[in-house]
Amino acid sequence: MQMLHRQPGWRFSAYLVQPLPKPHNLLKPYLRKATESSQTLAMKSIEEADVGILCYISQLPGFRGVLKQRYSDFIVNEVDSDGSVVHLTSLDAPPEDDENKMETTDHSFKSYTSEIESFKSLAGQCNAELLKAFLDQIISGVEDVSPLVLCPDADKSHRTEMHKFFKEKFKFLVTDTVDGPDASTKCIRVRLNSGNNQKRGRNSRKRKDRSDKPFDSRGSDDWSEHVGKFLRFHLYKENKDTQEALQLIGKMLGIQQRSFGFAGTKDKRSVSTQRVTVFKQHASRLAALNERLIGIKVGDFGHVNEELLLGQLSGNRFTVTLRGVVADSEDIIKASVISLGKNGFINYFGLQRFGSGSVPTQIVGAALLRGEWKEAVNMILDAREGERDSIRQAREYYRESDDIEGTLRQLPRYLVAERAILQCLKKCPGNYLQALKGIPRTLRMMYVHSYQSYLWNHAASVRVQKYGTTQVVLGDLVYCKGKDIERSSEALSSSGYEDGSCNEIDHCSIQEEILPEERDSVSVKAVNAEDLAAGTYTIDDVVLPLPGSRVIYPANDVAEVYHNLASKDNVNLIESVHNVKEFSITCMSGGYRRVFQKPLDFEWEMIRYTDGNIPLAETDLDIISKSKHELTKEDILTNQDKDETLLTEREGKNDEGGIKAQLALKLSFTLPASCYATMAIRELLKTSTSVAFHKTLNA
Fold this sequence. Notes:
The chain is of the alpha+beta class. 33% of the residues lie in helices and 16% in strands. Strands 1, 2, 3, 7, 8, 9, 10, 11, 18 and 19 form a 10-stranded mixed sheet that branches.
């Protein structure tokens, strides 16, 4: 294995620029008419050129390699704020105080025969038998008892009597009402009250929260003063996005998804490990879920006093395996990898930022900035390329019928934005702005932020095209150094967005992480002739702004890209055309982002393999399993002996079916928060990172 580590003294001395379109053609694909239908735009599959990803650093030829042939070929481990890589190392719950374990002490050994008989006369034989079985589970000490749903009941007054019965006779249980099997009936749901919230008033939570989120989000109130209020754990997931995983865990625990805190979302098609906090939950309850969870594990439990917030991480550690690597020679592969480690890549926002294969989020963002609320709603609701037939049919059904209830029954719950819009339109027909505000804030702000990213990508491409990648030029923006920090009157804080949470949460998991952009408390200035003469700044210091009210733009031609491109989209970066602050760039502070990024702690190796179904990199769960059960030699291919065996098979055929060995390239590196690993891979392969393109390589 060959290893490369970032050296502080390295300079960008051999950067070359891949040929680009002529300047007058650079923005041509984006000179769209404002009247072009949203449906046409939404149905278009996004390509890298559509969002300004145009340039490369090196002129080395690319090579063939398949990205994410298996989701385990893309491993992501969060790096916390202290710089520690987050791993899943244990699935077991730590010992807890007896008083913290006793959640059912009031009723563990009591008989409820008389209460069940009374309930039988009120609710009938069937419901009485269901309740008895439910109580038997609780009394026997079964952990994580699933909620009990009673038989359908269309009589509201009768349901009220049943709610009162439970409140009086079973104070350790709570009830609520859920939809029945048809529109005319409702069912009472009964569950164990771990939070003693029977003491809370009828209106302790807003009705809008109770309607769609019937589970208690606050956890147990019976909590020791000596234990931190938040349970922190490591979430390991395979081929699932963060929101999907937490929604499932919340449902199994009987708590709302908003009870969880996390620092950033991770790419869905990956194996990832990250930190999560949840309010007042016992580790034993979560650890018990591991036997039932598929593709998800939780562990490394501990209690803390503060919940995790978006952006509270320093980066991510990636282990990426490119399969089916084919090049003119292995020397080309080695030269490309060495160049990546030494020179880095252009720090573009990746396709995930823009909803590849889903909503073209930057176009929705432009509509929001123009105040075109109905247009934005239509873009989000319209059918699009690459979706399952059932979802496409639901979208088309709504477009043809305007039947909100019928559409909601067809749309899966993970389509958060669509469902939120429809539910608001049901209550306030025609109020498209209110419908957009019904989308969770972290999700709706994604659209505006993606438009900022869209402009940034184009500016970065023009910066590389006009001025190259080897040196700072007059008018470049840089993070200030030394005396410039004290004396720069034009410097601004690069604190990211106004609310401190540039969120990219999407129901389709469109990104690798969600973070504020470049939130360092550092000043920014435009390079002048004195700076160039002194050689104070290097190419590493160059940044470009994400548009906002508190940023400055480069003092050279690159600044024109922002305003020209926004103007062609009828977007004004100086003045707002409406009074809705959250959808106005002029009401955001903006931020800065480095133009070039080097991978940190960079390692790589080439591996021979014959079976494409066998992992080439160990996940955290593999390591845990390996420590418990000694794996056979065939289970993992990453050890050196296996590599040598496969290497000898390269020239000939193996004994098991005449399959020739293939070549894989495994890369491990760390990137700061909000940097995209796919852009580093793009620099190597010189090909698109779109899902559609790599599916063709897998065919």
